[in-house]
Amino acid sequence: MARIQGVPPNKAGLFARIAYWYTKKTLGRLIDAVTITAHSTPLLKGVAKMESAQKAIMKSANPALVTLAEVKVAMMVGCPF
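User: That's the sequence. What structure does it adopt?
Assistant: Structure tokens below.
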């Protein structure tokens, strides 16, 4: 559970509502990280640009190398997935 309450959709600004819609479309649900980041529109825009750049890089990388990197990072942070 997050220590900070996220911004509810009915109180979110236009950009945050767009981010909420896109998150629901791509992940199937609205995650806490997006609702918490929505407290600051410039921060939300920066995170969106970073995610967009990472997605573009992932498309150009070798899929086997991407999978290997994901497994390595998961091992480093102790992720059980």
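The chain has a mean pLDDT of 92.
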